[in-house]
Design brief:
CATH architecture of the domain at 12-44 and 91-186: 3-Layer(aba) Sandwich
Structural class: alpha/beta
CATH superfamily of the domain at 12-44 and 91-186: P-loop containing nucleotide triphosphate hydrolases
Number of helices: 8
Radius of gyration: 17 Å
CATH topology of the domain at 12-44 and 91-186: Rossmann fold
Low-confidence stretches: 1-5
Distance between the termini: 45 Å
């Protein structure tokens, strides 16, 4: 049996942005638009906290996360805000089949993701500062001090490796409009029929 060459990331969309930018809502809205024949998969993200109903995440204990990482079950993994995040190795099988794969990533981890998948398309979801502040407060997860830290962090530059295809995506407006634009970006059939 010959070994399959590693995936180069062609067809991989690495979605990232500050907490509160609406990445999970955008991905959920896209998932609801996908037709049966759309060759697009939105990968679950593994995380060491309880998953929010709005996100495509699977909760794991820290021990189980470490075990899966040690077994090579994770294609990508990172640590942020005291939590571990990971994307399963199954994305490589999906990419090898010619599917487009969308993952919810981290801005800080982008260089490592590009090192593994040099042909990925990075999608930076951003919103205006006042919209971000409002969304963070509506979630009710954090104190005003924590929200201020997140707002400051959202304004900081993040590392973009040379040669990385980066698409800036504004999600400040209505979710319906953003979902339609995002569907066009990833080439969903449903969006193409609505143009």
């Amino acid at each position: 049996m010959t070994a399959r060459p590693p995936a180069d990331g062609h067809g991989l969309f690495y979605v990232m942005g500050p907490s509160g930018s609406g990445k999970d809502s955008l991905l959920r809205a896209l998932r609801e638009r996908l037709r049966q024949d759309d060759p697009i998969v939105i990968a679950h993200r593994y995380i060491t906290r309880e998953a929010d109903a709005n996100e495509a995440s699977v909760a794991l204990t820290r021990d189980e996360f470490r075990r899966r990482r040690a077994l090579g079950c994770l294609a990508l993994d990172w640590h942020s805000h005291g939590l571990h995040y990971g994307i399963g190795i199954e994305i490589e099988q999906w990419l090898a089949r010619g599917l487009k794969v969308i993952v919810n990533g981290s801005r800080e981890y982008l260089p490592q993701a590009v090192a593994r998948y040099p042909k990925l398309c990075a999608v930076h979801v951003r919103v205006r500062p006042e919209v971000l502040a409002s969304r963070l407060r509506q979630r009710g997860r954090e104190s005003e001090t924590a929200i201020a830290r997140r707002l400051a962090r959202a304004a900081q530059a993040f590392p973009v490796p040379a040669g990385c295809r980066l698409v800036e995506f504004d999600n400040s407006g209505a979710l319906e409009n953003a979902a339609e634009a995002f569907a066009r970006l990833v080439g969903a059939t449903s969006a193409a029929h609505q143009l």
